[in-house]
Amino acid sequence: MQHMQQRQQMQPAGPPSPSCSSTSDCFPLIIHRSAAECGSETSAEPEKHEVRAENSPTDLFRMRSIVSFYVCFLLCLGLGVSCVVCVCLWNKQWRGGFAWDGSPKQFNWHPVLMVTGLIVLYGNGAVLYRVPLTWGQNKLPWKLLHAAVMLLALVLSVVGLCAVFDFHNAKNTPNLYSLHSWIGIAATALFAMQWVLGLAVFLVPCSPISLRKLLKPVHVWFGGSILSLSIVACISGINEKLFFALKRNTSGTQPYSKLPPEAVLGNTLGVLIVAFGLVVLKILSNPKWQRPDSRPEDTAYTPLFQEENE
Amino acid sequence: MQHMQQRQQMQPAGPPSPSCSSTSDCFPLIIHRSAAECGSETSAEPEKHEVRAENSPTDLFRMRSIVSFYVCFLLCLGLGVSCVVCVCLWNKQWRGGFAWDGSPKQFNWHPVLMVTGLIVLYGNGAVLYRVPLTWGQNKLPWKLLHAAVMLLALVLSVVGLCAVFDFHNAKNTPNLYSLHSWIGIAATALFAMQWVLGLAVFLVPCSPISLRKLLKPVHVWFGGSILSLSIVACISGINEKLFFALKRNTSGTQPYSKLPPEAVLGNTLGVLIVAFGLVVLKILSNPKWQRPDSRPEDTAYTPLFQEENE
């Protein structure tokens, strides 16, 4: 912790290097607070505030980085909202709405809750730490918000699974035989494990810093992999559902192969989910957009790495 | 180029820093050649050779990085071979084999060629540059091999698409209506664009270095996204095929819901494809395993970035 404070205080006053090796280097217009606040939940009050507003070409380069982040973030929010609207509209308008009585109306909760929980809330919860606005602030509230959003996502996903299990059981249909179900259940189970391990390692105060350092890249990588699995499960599920629902000469609907409006809406939902996932994974994979206390160049060249990096 | 040579020659003889800022830092046991050879296709003969074999703790740390890379790489090869074996076995043993006559036997080429081309060859072609064995050598032959593997992958994918279009046309079934087909055709079209742009930008000698620098991260990111799209398309396709092929009371087969051996094989193929994709994306996303001439810390702190980084 001492090292962190010293490091922050010893930053040169001149223009930062093009390598963007600290928060202020990449985002010079954000408010600087004490190092104790940035990256640790044990901090108390801010120690110093400083606002820099430079107009050098390097600053313009950094400003472009902020702008491109927010473009991606807004795209992520917009695509997420569009996914939820599409999946609700599809099941409300074309599939008869919602109930919890073992009927097909109960099944309709499954796509709505999985898309909302396992894709949209999960994706937005994952990119929370990347928002530069949060970087000058105490990490703990953001950590709690990350955990809370992920818990809500997990609860919705589990209820979404219950909806389909109940529906299958009411119809005496076997569960968990399709490839879609294998990948979907794996994604949800890994998500539950990830959440519990995340709580134990990154939120319980007594967990050792060395363990946090060791498991943080694993946590981040598993996070992205779980999102990828969820997208694969959702797309295969939507594809399967459209083939089941839009059969030739069934209840007066046009077959899937004629691309009736419902099919176009379902396909569009799939495309939106894939686009949302790619934007989230893009945000997660860009090292320039990582919260600075976890960026490799901040940890590899300073004693900070030896003391705290979680 | 001069900068690159100076930089290489001016490397300190002492033990490398823990930040792994050059090839030799991360992989001290590889043979050093001239900078002209590493990262540029314009080199001629090797200028100097040097073999270092140190046993400091830092070297052990780096050796662990090499070992973990090769574990991932072998996993990638093993999973790739398993995918090809599974998809061939499934279509040969359970789906009646192969032909090119508009019959279902022609359709069988579709999964085989898409999995082999768009997933396995594509994934292996993508991680070629990450193999440390290639780092001390002239980049051009590896660039040509990368382009050749990707071209073969693209040709197989296009033939795989022709197989299903021909089959549909022979049966008067509409093309490109399902979500699976939308995502699959998008993946193949983007792959074709990526290959042509890659050729024009990274292989045609007259393309400017500044353009290569600008487009390289875009090329890498699109590469990973195309693989993700391909995996989504494959999983939804296998899921759809198993539902179509394993219907109740059809041609004496057990339904999908009873999980007959064919269903288990198909689901296993899907799981193997997802595992293969995650390993490839893991290799691509690890900055420690990037070919050094393109690693951010090599380009951000030296004039090299201003002259050549592709």
Automatic annotation (TrEMBL), chains A, B:
Keywords: Electron transport, Endosome, Glycoprotein, Heme, Iron, Lysosome, Membrane, Metal-binding, Oxidoreductase, Translocase, Transmembrane, Transmembrane helix, Transport. Its cofactor is heme b. One of its GO terms (molecular function) is transmembrane ascorbate ferrireductase activity. It comes from the Eukaryota. GO terms for cellular component: late endosome membrane; lysosomal membrane. It holds the Pfam family Cytochrom_B561. It catalyses: Fe(3+)(out) + L-ascorbate(in) = monodehydro-L-ascorbate radical(in) + Fe(2+)(out) + H(+). Its main location: membrane. Residues 75-285 form the Cytochrome b561 domain. It is a multi-pass membrane protein. Residues 1-12 have a biased composition (Low complexity). Transmembrane reductase that uses ascorbate as an electron donor in the cytoplasm and transfers electrons across membranes to reduce iron cations Fe(3+) into Fe(2+) in the lumen of the late endosome and lysosome. Reduced iron can then be extruded from the late endosome and lysosome to the cytoplasm by divalent metal-specific transporters. It is therefore most probably involved in endosomal and lysosomal cellular iron homeostasis. Homodimer. PANTHER family: CYTOCHROME B561-RELATED, LYSOSOMAL MEMBRANE ASCORBATE-DEPENDENT FERRIREDUCTASE CYB561A3. This is Lysosomal membrane ascorbate-dependent ferrireductase CYB561A3. It comes from Larimichthys crocea (Large yellow croaker). The lineage of its organism: Eukaryota, Metazoa, Chordata, Craniata, Vertebrata.
